Task: inverse folding
């Protein structure tokens, strides 16, 4: 153990991406002898304990009579709002981004009392949260806390960085101002209401048009320097870029006999735990890859029972992504920050099909930096997907670039760096 045993509490967003990120960091801290406790939504009960951590349960919404799967609220929400994802990102601000923030704010208001109870019971030395809205109970308790940004770092605003969630190019700014004005119009009233709530509950004022506070102690984000944005205003001294944060807790994986016995590029298709709930989109992608000279691994997601795979494919509802990625040749992804940074960590090129939130920013960044290809998720022609795969597989220069990125990232694991920084928080 590197220092005296401490109690460290992780509070991730109630979705697999932030939770998996925190599990990777928490695993390093636990192996160093610290007590690691996770505050998780009730539908996740048992999933974190199975990985060897303590759990404390809470709810972001009133109880339901129906049995709930992990993250069920967000699965249902994404499915219900899916039609909005076919619209330009500036129109999604009012149709999806603002309602999503409102749902998150409602959750923060609902759970604030319960969070205060948990903090009082557990008595943490440090609180670590990976969320996109603030939770005043964490700020008001007087204990050191750490902010993790596991989304695209465009969330950290800068005049030289495209507006968050826009998916706009870094080199073409003609649409930036209109997007920012629409963001302000659609979010100002909600921001004022949440700012008032944060103050009433003992937290500081929110930054202008932002829904999350910056920690005075430590702030972490995750984006390899090869694809990170150039900023007009450098981030402050409490900010540290982990570059990648890949967990080592996933189960081992080897290509099943059905794939190992055949030839062709090994392709991994994953739209994450939420976007994969769009069954029509998943069926379209499976159809584009069926009969092609690829071996395909499909993370089938919550609609797995209704998704039929072709003969050149295998898949399950959930797959151990961090164990699969080292084996594959190309990743087809929605552009979630975890998958993007993990793919770079293992040196894999990407075809990115963004669906919502920061996925558009990641898709654009991979495309303009040359580490992947961005396709129009709902508007691309079926042949474009295999054409993009073929081009990425054939690009020897790209393979060399990715190998160099992978080697550098694996020499300094972000999970280990994060653990060390968190240990020093007082």
Result:
């Amino acid at each position: 153990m590197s220092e005296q045993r401490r109690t460290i509490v992780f509070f991730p967003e109630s979705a697999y991406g932030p939770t998996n990120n925190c599990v990777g960091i928490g695993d390093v801290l636990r192996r160093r002898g610290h007590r690691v406790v996770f505050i998780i939504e009730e539908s996740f009960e048992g999933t974190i304990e199975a990985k060897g951590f303590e759990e404390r349960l809470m709810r972001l919404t009133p109880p339901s009579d129906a049995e709930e799967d992990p993250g069920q609220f967000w699965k249902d929400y994404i499915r219900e709002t899916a039609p909005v994802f076919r619209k330009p990102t500036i129109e999604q601000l009012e149709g999806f981004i603002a309602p999503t923030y409102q749902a998150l704010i409602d959750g923060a208001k609902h759970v604030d009392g319960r969070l205060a109870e948990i903090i009082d019971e557990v008595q943490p030395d440090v609180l670590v949260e990976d969320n996109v809205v603030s939770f005043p109970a964490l700020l008001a308790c007087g204990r050191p806390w750490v902010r993790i940004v596991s989304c695209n770092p465009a969330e950290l605003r800068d005049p030289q960085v495209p507006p968050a969630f826009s998916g706009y190019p870094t080199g073409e700014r003609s649409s930036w101002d209109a997007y920012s004005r629409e963001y302000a119009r659609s979010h100002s009233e909600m921001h004022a209401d949440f700012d008032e709530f944060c103050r009433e509950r003992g937290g500081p004022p929110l930054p202008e048009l932002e829904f999350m506070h910056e920690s005075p102690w430590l702030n972490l984000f995750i984006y390899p320097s090869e694809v990170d944005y150039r900023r007009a205003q450098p981030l402050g001294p409490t900010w540290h870029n982990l570059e990648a944060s890949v967990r080592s807790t996933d189960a081992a994986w080897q290509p099943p006999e059905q794939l190992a016995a055949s030839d062709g590029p090994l392709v991994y298709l994953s739209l994450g735990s939420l976007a994969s709930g769009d069954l029509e989109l998943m069926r379209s992608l499976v159809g584009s890859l069926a009969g092609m000279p690829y071996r395909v691994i499909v993370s089938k997601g919550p609609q797995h029972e209704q998704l039929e795979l072709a003969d050149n494919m295998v898949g399950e509802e959930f797959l151990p992504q961090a164990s699969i990625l080292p084996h594959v040749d190309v990743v087809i992804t929605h552009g979630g920050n975890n998958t993007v940074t993990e793919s770079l960590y293992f040196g894999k090129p990407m075809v990115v099909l963004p669906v919502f939130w920061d996925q558009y920013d990641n898709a654009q960044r991979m495309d303009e930096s040359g580490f992947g290809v961005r396709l129009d998720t709902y508007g691309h022609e079926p042949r474009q997907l295999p054409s993009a795969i073929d081009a990425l597989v054939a690009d020897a220069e790209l393979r060399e670039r990715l190998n160099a990125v992978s080697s550098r990232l694996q020499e300094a694991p972000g999970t280990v760096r994060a653990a060390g920084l968190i240990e020093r928080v007082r």
Q: What stands out?
A: The mean pLDDT is 92. The longest strand covers residues 35-41. The radius of gyration is 21 Å. Residues 307 and 390 are 25 Å apart (CA to CA).
